[in-house]
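EI: anyone free to look at a 428-residue chain?
SC: sure, send it
EI:
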Amino acid sequence: MIWVYRLLFLPALLLAAPYYLWRMRKRGGYAVGFGGRFGEVPELPAKSAARKRVWLQAVSVGEMLAIGPLLEGLKRDGCETYLTTTTSTGYALAKEKYALLTIGIGYFPLDFWAFSARAWRQVQPDLCVLMEGERWPEHVRAARGRGVPVVSVNARLSDRSFRRSVRFKWALRPLAAGITRVLASAKRDEQRFRALGFPAERLQTTGNLKLDVAIPLLDDAARVALRRAVGLPAGGLVLLGSSTWPGEEEALLEALRRARADGHDVSLLLVPRHAERREELRGLLERSGFSFHFRSEGAAPRTVDVAVGDTTGELRQLTQLADLVFVGKSLPPHDGGQTPVEAAILGKPVLHGPRMTNFRDIIRSLTEADAVRRVATHAELVRLAVELLENAAEREQLAAAARAWSAANRGATERTLAVLRAELAARA
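SC: here you go
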C-alpha cells in the first residue's frame, strides 16, 4: 500500500504545487525555514540516551496555542521536544511562544519518503505526537520501521473527513496499524476511529486539550490600553466577530447599524480568520460608511466604529474586550465553524451559526449547559445580536454558564501526558 501512496504522491504534488505556491506567496512568511519542507532540520542538540526526545507536529494557530501545557509537562518530565508545523502562522507563533520549551522549531517535511527519511535521520525521536487531524502515512511508516510509538492526541474526525474516510477505509489500514494510540477529544471521535478499523485497545477518550488552556487575563489598565490601541472607545459595548469568513462581516456590520439605530453605544471588533483578506475587508468597510482601523497598521490615531484585528495570535487578548462574541465560519455557505472554546473559557456570551460541524461535541455540550445561542441565518444573527446587546442580564447568564462549563471540562492535558509517559516507559 505504501508504494501506491509513493507513486501517487509526486504527481499529486506537482499538480497541486501551483495552487499551494500561490497561497504561500499570498500569505507570506514561508521563506524562513523553507528547506524544512524537503527534510531539512534546524541544528538540534546531540541525541542523549539520558533524555527522551519527542517530535510533536501541530498545524493551526489554535493547535499551537493548545499544546502549551503539553510542552510544559514534557519539559517537566525531562523530555526534549522538537516542534514542527506546516503553516507560516503556526511557525511564527511557535517561535514566539515555545523557544524555551523546545530544542528546535521547524516545518514538517512533505510526506514523501526521501524528505521524511532525511528528517528522521536528523531528529531521531523516541516518540511521535500528532495533533488532531495530522495522520501522515510516510511519517507513520517511518516511525513503525524504527519501533517508535506514534500517538495521535486531541484526535478528531469532522463529518466531512469521516465520510471521506469511510469510502476509502481500505487505504487507512496502514495508518490504523502504525498509530500506536489514538487519544480522542470526544467519545464520538473515538467511535468513528473504531468504525474505521482502529483497534479498540488503542483508542481512548482523553478530552479536548483546548479546554485546559490557561489564558493570561488582562488587568483593567491593559484592557483600557488595548481598547485605545485598536481604536475602540473607552466606554460602550463591543460586539466581536471571532475568526470571521466572507459574508459574516456584512451581517455583523448590519447588527452594529441596527444597535446604534436603537440608541445603543456599541462598537464592532472584527478578527478575520485570514489576515490576508484585509484589502477585501477594507473595501467592505469603505462602502459601509463606518470609520475603521486595522490593527496591523499600528496604534489607532483616533476612535473608530469598527476595529479590525488583522494580526496573528492576538485573538485571546482581543476577546477579552468583547461583550458579545459571534464565532465565524458557521453561517451558510460556510461549514465547520471556528473554535468557541477561548470565548467560553473567558466567560463570554457566544453566538454561532448552524454549521459548527468541526466542533459538534463542544457545541452540543455548550448548548446543554445553556452557554451559547444558535442563529440559523444572517438575518437571525443581526436580530439576536441586537437583542443580546440590549439585555445585560441575559448576557451575564450566558457568561456564567460558559465559565461553569469551562471549569467542569478540564483535565485532558494530564490524561494525555499519562499516556505519553507510559509509551516512553514502554519503549525504554
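EI: The mean pLDDT is 92.
SC: 👍
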